Amino acid sequence: MSDFKSAFIGNGLYCLSRLTGRTGRYQVSGIDHFHECRAAGRPVILAAWHGMTMMLASYFIGHFDPGSFVLLLPDDERGRNLSVWARKLGAHPFCLHLEGDSSLASARQLVNLVRLVKGGRDCYITPDGPDGPAYRIKPGVAYIAQKAQAAILPVGAYTRTGYRLNRWDQYTIPRPFSRIALVIGEPLQAPAGGEATALIGQLTAALHQVTAQAAANYYEMR
Predict the structure, then answer these.
(1) What is the Cβ-side half-sphere exposure of residue 77, based on CA atoms within 13 angstroms?
(2) How many Å from the N-terminal Cα to the C-terminal Cα in the chain?
(3) Helix (H) or strand (E) run with residue 141 in it
(4) C-alpha to C-alpha distance for 12 and 1, rounded to whole angstroms
(5) Looking at CB atoms within 10 Å, which of 9, 27, 103, 214 has the fewest?
(6) What pLDDT is attached to residue 12?
(7) Whole-structure pTM over 0.90, yes or no?
(8) Backbone angles phi, psi at 218, to 5 degrees
(9) In degrees to the nearest 10, what's the CA dihedral of 190, 195, 196, 197?
(10) Helix, coil or strand: residue 45
(11) Is-contact 20 62, C-beta < 8 A?
């Protein structure tokens, strides 16, 4: 029954994503940052607040090589549902326990994720997910970027015509034919070694900035 439920939810999200992607109108700022990182041969970690996933992940998977994208998902029922959605879009779902599990199995999974990113896969991460608190970045994104020598691109999106779930992240599901503003900030570099606290502070500020800029750009769209 759980497999049927995951397939039902995942396929439903996929159909909605495809409809939104085909009918939506995106205004994208900062796409050069993405292309520059790829041209330099650097793996990219796209980081965004959790509530923006349905606006952002579908765009990147749909407009670039989907096989190169890894989506970091929680290792629970939500992750199983979203894995169906990600695979249907052509991305590589990667389920990982995200609540500080220090088991050997989780450590091995984290090493495998670092290898994928270091090998050239771009990774989409919501650093305040999957359960919040909102806008509070967990240290995993800095660790992955550091070990994989990847650039972190902060990304923000905004639409007024979407369904906003009344929960901690105000998760937004854009309606078909929505106008969506998307902003990609300048790449952040993880320190080669040592403390990553400064990077987490920089990423927090950058995510707030691109989110605010996306909202501002939205209201300037014609």
Answers:
(1) 8
(2) 46
(3) helix 140-148
(4) 16
(5) 103
(6) 92
(7) yes
(8) -60, -45
(9) -150
(10) strand
(11) no
